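Marked as duplicate of an earlier ticket. Keeping the data here for the record.
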Amino acid sequence: MTFIYTIPFPAHLLSNDVTSDTENILGKEYKDKPASPFENNMDKDEFVGLFAAIEMEGLEEKEEEVNIYIADENRVEAEQIIKAICEEQQTTYTISELENKNWNEKWESAFQPILIDDFVLVRATFHPANTSVQHEIIIEPKMSFGTGHHPTTSQMMQNMRLVDFQDKSVLDCGSGTGILAILAEKLGAKNAIALDNDIWCFENCKESIILNQTKNIEPAIGDLEQVKGKTFDIVLANIHRNFLAEHMHTLSAITNENGFVFVSGFYEEDAKIILNKALEHNLIANYHTTQHNWACIVFQKK
C-alpha cells in the first residue's frame, strides 16, 4: 500500500506581496524591472527540500501543495519527519491511500518529448528519433530535475542558442540529468563539468552521458568548492533564487572575462534581486526571458 501525504504550502510562501528594495552597496541598480525584496525567508523550493531525507516513492509539487508518496514500510519514520516539519513551518497535512504502482513506470508513461522549435528535441529512449531537428538529447525519465519540461530548463536551452559555445569551457551548476551540459557539448563546447550535490542526480547524469555518447563532459558531485581554482567561458546555473543571490560573487569569479553566466530557477518578480546582485559583480544582462512567470537571464562578464 502507498500513502499520499498532502501538505499545503505555508501561507507566507503563497504571498504575492512585493515591496521596494532600494539598497545596493555599490550604488548600482537596474531601474527597468519591478522592485522585489530579497528576504531570508524560505521559498517553495527550499520548503520542498526539507522533505529530502524521507524515503519516498515520489514527490509531486503543485501550485499550492506538495504530495509525497510513501510506501507502507516507510510510513512510521516518514510521518514523524513530516509532522515535525509541518509544525515548524505552521502548516498541516492529510493522508490518503493509493494502490501500489510502479511509479517510475507511471512517470515514464507520462513523459512526453519536448521540442523547442527546430533547435532541440528532448526525448526518452522509447520515443522515436527526429532527424529534422538540429540537436537531439535522450534522457532516461527518472525523478532528477532537468527533462526540459519545466519553464526554467526549456528557457535555458532556448537561450543557449544565442551564445557561441564553440571551443568554450562550460560549468553546468545544479546539473540534474546533465541536459544542459549535453546541449553545450552538442553546440561545440570543448569540455563541460556537470556539477550537482545530489547523488541521484549524479548517477542519472552519468547515465545521460552514456545515452548521448558525449565525450567531453565530466560529472561531479558536490558544491562550488569542487571547481575551486577553475574558470569557465560559460556558466549555466538553473538552481533557485536564494542560491543565485548568495553565490553570485562566486559565479562571477569563476567566469572568464567576456564570458557568460546563464541563470534561471526564480520567478519574474524576483528578477530585480538577481539583476542587482549580478551587477554588483560586473555581470551585465544581455538577454532576459520569461515563461509562465519563471525568468531566465543571460549575463556577460565585463
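See parent ticket for discussion. The radius of gyration is 20 Å.
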